[in-house]
Amino acid sequence: MTPTTTQQELFRFLEDRFVCAQACTECARACALRASLADPDGPAAEALARRKGILCAEVCDATCRLLSEQVDLDEAALRVQLEWCSTVCLETAQVFDEYPGGEDAAKACRECAQACTDFAWTLEAPDSGRGGG
Q1: Angle CA(45)–CA(54)–CA(14) in degrees, nearest 5?
Q2: C or N: which end of the chain has fewer Cβ atoms within 10 Å?
Q3: Alpha carbon 95 to chain centroid, angstroms
Q4: Is 116 or 13 the better-scoring residue by pLDDT?
Q5: Averaged over 8-30, what is the pLDDT?
Q6: Closest-CA residue to 85 (of 51, 61, 101)
Q7: pTM of the model
Q8: CB–CB of 2/130 below 8 Å?
Q9: How do residues 44-99 score in pLDDT, each as one tens digit?
Q10: How many Å from the N-terminal Cα to the C-terminal Cα in the chain?
Q11: Under 8 Å CB-to-CB from 8, ≥6 apart: which residues?
Q12: C-alpha–C-alpha distance, residues 129 and 5, integer Å
């Protein structure tokens, strides 16, 4: 945020950041649960759901931790993390769509992907001269 950022803009930025972190947390929980229900020795589709669920939970957890840090963040790095999280969530949702009982986890993944995309839009363009968030 720059010195010209209004208090209202700062509050909105922090609210958007919190919403994204909360969506990441919910997605991580849903994916970890879904992965724990998959049989590690099951068919290939089940193994894929398990692997994707674990990866998605880890990426969402890392994204949430990054969003929760109180230090000044490099917005370019944050944008990359948000885009990665969104991509992993959408890929995982597609896998869960094909897996019986995966509807809730797929929904959490899509909501997280949307929250990451929405929050990334609140960040300034890399060449705008605005400092970290």
Answers
A1: 130
A2: N
A3: 17
A4: 116
A5: 89
A6: 61
A7: 0.83
A8: yes
A9: 888 888 999 999 999 999 999 888 876 666 888 889 999 999 999 999 999 999 88
A10: 6
A11: none
A12: 13
DSSP string of the chain?
--TT--HHHHHHHHHHHHHHHHHHHHHHHHHHHHHHHS-TTS-HHHHHHHHHHHHHHHHHHHHHHHHH--SPP-HHHHHHHHHHHHHHHHHHHHHHHTSTT-HHHHHHHHHHHHHHHHHHHHSPPTTS-----
Q: Which is more confidently placed, 107 or 39?
A: 107
> Which amino acid, residue 100?
P
| pLDDT at site 24 | 92
119 touches 17 (CB < 8 A): yes
Q: Quote the percentage of the chain above a pLDDT of 90.
A: 50
**Which of 26, 17, 18 lies closest to 121 in space, CA to CA?**
17
Q: At residue 58, what are phi and psi to the nearest 5 degrees?
A: -65, -45
CA distance 1 to 10: 7
